[in-house]
Design brief:
Elements lengths: L1 H29 L16 H18 L1
Length: about 60
């Protein structure tokens, strides 16, 4: 019975480690765990990209009519 508990704890620890491995790096990239004044990731949207998304929205409206 002690072997079963050990296996359950091992599998649980591996699973939690796997989840933390995928969730911690985005927080580090965004500056949550750093001393930066401004938290978050800056997204730069130029006029061409904004026009592209506006045109996508317009084409959806045209299809509905």
């Amino acid at each position: 019975m002690t072997k079963v508990y050990g296996i359950v704890i091992l599998i649980t620890t591996l699973f939690v480690g796997f989840l933390l491995g995928y969730s911690i790096p985005p927080f580090i990239h965004a500056g949550v765990f750093s001393d930066r004044e401004q938290k978050g990731v800056e997204i730069i949207v130029d006029e061409d990209l904004e026009k592209f998304y506006d045109d996508l929205y317009k084409s959806d409206e045209d299809d509905d009519e």
